[in-house]
Amino acid sequence: GGHTTEILRLLSCLSESYCPRHYVLADSDKMSEAKIHSFEQKRAETFSSSQFTLDRIPRSREVRQSWTTSVVTTLYSILYSLPLIYKLKPDLILCNGPGTCVPVCISAFLLGLLSMKRATIVYVESICRVETLSLSGKILYYFSDYFIVQWPALKEKYPKSVYLGRIV
């Protein structure tokens, strides 16, 4: 959906040194997989050494899922993400808001606390978030190394954030 489109726009600006790229999707997300394959196919035309993987984790929260049950499903997703993040050992996690990014970032944060592997977490709040943060943003504001917003009103409310203007 929209999050995938935004993140692929960001990735299109990165050099070929950001390779391999590991995409983590919710297990029920079919639309994003097709967009990623299309994006990577076009990228391979420019950068011949382009490498990427797709991994799936359980969705942490469904649309309209109750807050109580979403805590349980998010914990399950974190437990599923921990071995994946340990295996991938990313240097950088770039994410932009779908609920799937929360378990991935928390897993990376926990592995960093345990001195297993420290990943830099960069969270980019969606451009549609003008006055308030998304739920993912509210959570990852405390776990991210860089928290980027695309509207000055958000920078005023969240002093840790970085305002760069519209970047997608």
UniProtKB/TrEMBL annotation:
One of its GO terms (cellular component) is UDP-N-acetylglucosamine transferase complex. The keyword Endoplasmic reticulum applies. Keywords: Endoplasmic reticulum, Membrane, Transferase, Transmembrane, Transmembrane helix. GO terms for biological process: dolichol-linked oligosaccharide biosynthetic process. GO terms for molecular function: N-acetylglucosaminyldiphosphodolichol N-acetylglucosaminyltransferase activity. The chain crosses the membrane at residues 66-86, 92-114. Gene3D superfamilies: Glycogen Phosphorylase B. It holds the Pfam family Alg14. It is a single-pass membrane protein. It is found in: Endoplasmic reticulum membrane. Forms with ALG13 the active heterodimeric UDP-N-acetylglucosamine transferase complex. Belongs to the ALG14 family. This is UDP-N-acetylglucosamine transferase subunit ALG14. The lineage of its organism: Eukaryota, Metazoa, Chordata, Craniata, Vertebrata. The gene is Alg14.
